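can u do me a favor
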């Protein structure tokens, strides 16, 4: 019987976190969380053994893992025949090669990838794309996936890896294209509470002067926009607005549903 599951995730706007917690709830065992969203949480090494089981969660950026998420896992996380399920969360377009990239990386790091899921989260660029997701239906699906995963693991014996080719995706993975540098701007009403700087996953916002943001570091996760209590942060550049318009034209409909591989 599974003794514990560890959630290991990056989740700037909490959508990946919510999906993983629902899966773990369905698994019905004690849960530990390692949230490596913030820069200070990506500094320590984390090791897992044969008795552990890890649920790894990452958002999908352009069809692959965010580069700094991949670098953190490659440099600081290791397993020893550790059972693992990989979960990619995307904003209603497609997860492309993200799951196979996660599968390959975790296998190289000593994990046995026995399951995978592609879940939906509200798109970081616009609340109009996959709005409000994961919703009740998504979370019920995630719990059901967790139950099925727990049943598979309770069958006994060593954790078995998924056969190559079960998870859809391409090798080599989709090319990571350089993003146009841009950063949020501070509009009227900012009281310098520091909420944006404290929750920026790349340290792009100056805690002393939160109106200053480093466009080279910014990944456009929009955590600062979503978490600002006064709505004082916004992306207003023409390049960002053009990107949002393109996303609305291509991703808004139809509704995508989660998928899993066991």
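np, heres the sequence
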């Amino acid at each position: 019987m599974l003794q514990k599951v560890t959630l290991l995730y990056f989740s700037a706007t909490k959508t990946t976190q919510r999906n993983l917690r629902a899966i773990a709830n369905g698994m019905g065992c004690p849960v530990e969380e390692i949230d490596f969203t913030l820069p200070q949480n990506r500094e320590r090494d984390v090791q897992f053994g044969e008795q552990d089981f890890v649920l790894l969660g990452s958002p999908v950026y352009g069809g692959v893992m965010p580069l700094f998420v991949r670098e953190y896992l490659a440099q600081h996380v290791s397993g020893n025949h550790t059972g693992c399920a990989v979960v990619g969360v995307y904003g209603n377009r497609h997860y492309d090669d993200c799951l196979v990239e996660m599968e390959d990386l975790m296998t190289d790091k000593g994990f046995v990838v026995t399951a995978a899921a592609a879940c939906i989260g509200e798109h970081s660029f616009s609340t109009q794309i996959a709005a409000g997701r994961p919703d009740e239906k998504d979370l019920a699906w995630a719990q059901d996936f967790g139950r099925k995963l727990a049943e598979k693991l309770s069958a006994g014996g060593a954790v078995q890896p998924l056969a190559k080719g079960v998870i859809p995706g391409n090798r080599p993975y989709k090319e990571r294209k350089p993003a146009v540098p841009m950063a949020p701007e501070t509009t009227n009403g900012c009281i310098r509470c520091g909420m944006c700087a404290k929750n920026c996953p790349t340290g792009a916002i100056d805690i002393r002067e939160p109106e200053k943001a480093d466009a080279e570091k910014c990944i456009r996760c929009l955590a600062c926009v979503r978490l600002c209590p006064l709505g004082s942060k916004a992306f207003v550049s023409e390049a960002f607005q053009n990107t949002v318009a393109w996303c609305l034209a291509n991703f808004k409909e139809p509704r995508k549903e989660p998928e899993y591989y066991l």
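The chain has seven helices and ten strands. hope that helps!!
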